[in-house]
Write a structure and sequence with these properties.
The structure is a single chain. With 400 residues, the chain is an alpha+beta fold. It is 39% helix and 18% strand. The strands form 4 sheets. Strands 10-11-12-13-14 form a 5-stranded mixed β-sheet. It has a 3-stranded mixed β-sheet with strand order 1-8-9.
Length: 400
């Protein structure tokens, strides 16, 4: 791993904007390229659609629904951090396989709470994961509506495989909330669905009203999950292209894995990395990307990023929003607002209200905008309302 030069923050901004396709949106034919850069998180539901809207010129919900549900060229599954993520179906091996942990590489951020259930059952994580992986084979033959029903169905599959003395404990009321609706077994399954997803055993199907549906990769696509060369290395490369120059700590946070698993994956491409300095701190990027970083310039104008847009999924938040109190407004524990992006930096937040095909938007600026960018903000708002198939009935702007 070579040592490199000092890189100005403006170069990092420009580089990341380009990697996320936020400087110049892609044509509709390159939707898969936009989704495959680093995946599009879909929490809250619909977040991936807003992310695609900002990355694909002339993007429509029809285009996205066709790719996800008809052509199935896009797939939704639980991926990094255990979040629902949309990515190219043909690249599932990159977004799922590397997340399979090796012996001793847990807990992950999405299974840390399972210890209460393990203690109650007197069973190990590995024992129960093995049972869950076998039970998930049920989905090769059916589609299940709602996450609650999925938990229940797989818990019922596992119950007969347990030692007799464990079955009553398995059926006890859950200690995690809603004990009238969930058993200990259902709670265990809920924790283990993410690891099952990494094997292609659980993916999202077509949404039915407010409820998601679930089936297996094989049943949904009609084929086995594709195998690609070195998917572990490619996942790290994509992280570095979208968030570089970066650090192992940031990669660990992005994955939601334990440090040991992140280190193993990171080390797999260490020879491809180059060290640089950003504001005096060591950062790493792919050596092949160094020239692109040197040439990068921030731009992109005004964008309306949704909550949990991939561009906002970074550790070095001060790069795009130096004001710490305002960081707490943007990155909340729950109910994050959308972000007004101005040439790569956060210039404010936005929130929407939708009812009966009507949409109103409230913008809160963190800094004054010149007249041409205020016009651009209104135009983007109108474009977003049309994308959501709504009539814009209000566009309020609270001054900085």
């Amino acid at each position: 791993m070579k040592r490199g030069e000092e890189i100005r923050p403006e170069k990092v901004l420009g580089y990341r904007l380009g990697a996320h396709h936020l400087d110049r949106p892609l044509p509709p034919a390159q939707l898969l390229c936009a989704a495959g850069a680093c995946g599009l998180q879909n929490t809250p539901p619909g977040a991936w659609e807003t992310a695609a809207f900002n990355r694909v010129e002339g993007c429509t919900l029809d285009l996205l629904e066709e790719a996800l549900y008809e052509k199935k060229s896009l797939l939704q599954a639980w991926s990094f951090r255990g979040a629902p993520v949309v990515f190219p179906t043909g690249e599932s091996d990159i977004f799922l396989t590397p997340l399979r942990a090796q012996q001793g590489e847990w807990p992950w951020i999405y299974t840390r709470g399972i210890a209460l259930a393990l203690d109650h059952l007197g069973m190990s994580f590995d024992e129960l994961l093995g049972l869950a992986l076998r039970a998930a084979g049920l989905l090769d033959g059916c589609t299940i509506r709602s996450k609650e029903e999925l938990d229940r169905a797989l818990a019922q599959q596992i119950a007969p495989c347990l030692p007799a003395e464990k079955r009553a404990l398995w059926e006890d009321p859950s200690m995690y909330g809603s004990p009238d609706r969930q058993t200990v077994g259902g709670a265990v399954v809920s924790f283990l669905l993410r690891p099952c997803s990494f094997f292609g055993l659980v993916v999202f199907g077509r949404r039915e009203g407010a409820s998601p549906t679930f089936t297996s990769f094989a049943r949904w696509t009609g084929q086995k999950m594709p195998r690609l060369p070195q998917p572990e290395k490619e996942l790290v490369r994509r992280f570095l292209r979208c968030y570089g120059p970066s650090t192992l700590d940031a990669f660990t946070n992005w994955l939601g894995s334990c440090p040991a698993q992140a280190r193993r994956l990171w080390d797999g491409v260490a020879e491809e990395m180059e060290q640089v300095l950003v504001e005096g701190k060591k950062r790493y990027l792919l050596a092949s990307e160094l020239e692109a970083l040197r040439q990068a310039q921030p731009g992109g104008g005004i964008r309306l990023l949704g909550a949990h847009d991939p561009y906002l999924d970074l550790r070095d938040r001060a790069l795009i929003l130096p004001d710490v109190p305002r960081q707490r407004i943007v990155w909340r524990t729950v109910a994050n607002p959308g972000v007004i992006l101005r040439d790569g930096r956060v210039a404010g937040i936005w929130k929407t209200k939708t009812a009966g095909g009507k949409l109103s938007v409230a913008h809160q600026l963190f800094e004054p905008l010149p007249p041409e960018q205020r016009r651009a903000l209104k135009e983007e708002t109108e474009r977003y309302a049309a994308f959501r198939r709504c009539r814009l009935t209000g566009c309020a702007v609270e001054e900085a």
